[in-house]
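Write out the 3D structure for:
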Amino acid sequence: MPEGAAAPGPLPIVSFLKIPTQGEPYLEGIRCGHCRAVFLGERDVCASCGAREGLAATRLGNTGTLYVYTIVYRSFPGVPVPYVSAIVDLDGGGTVKGNLVGIDPDPQKIQMGMPVEVVYRTAPIKDREGNEYLTYCFQPRA
């Protein structure tokens, strides 16, 4: 892509968000072939069992359960508050941090262990070249 030219579609906002040319976006983790633990981000050694071989990329699930959350009341200028920052245990393995949307930022309405799903959205930012970015968040499952 020439410098100064925008990409033809949105770019992933993080390296573990994959946007295939065919099909839906997804989150990618690393699964240990020895102990089956799943992690985000590239790694050379399994943090669970210490294996150095048998680590392979794996597509993470789009559903999970809310592990923990916090309601953020102060953020960077231009970022609307309050919002819910959450950590989710994905079905099939992997733990991911992201925002919880589609629910009021009210502790009376948010339940630990509640079922959630991953949703993908265009981020409300563009870079200097005009590139859009795709991000992910979580919403309560019906």
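The beta strands are 11-12, 17-18, 26-32, 38-39, 55-59, 63-72, 83-90, 95-100, 115-126, 132-140.
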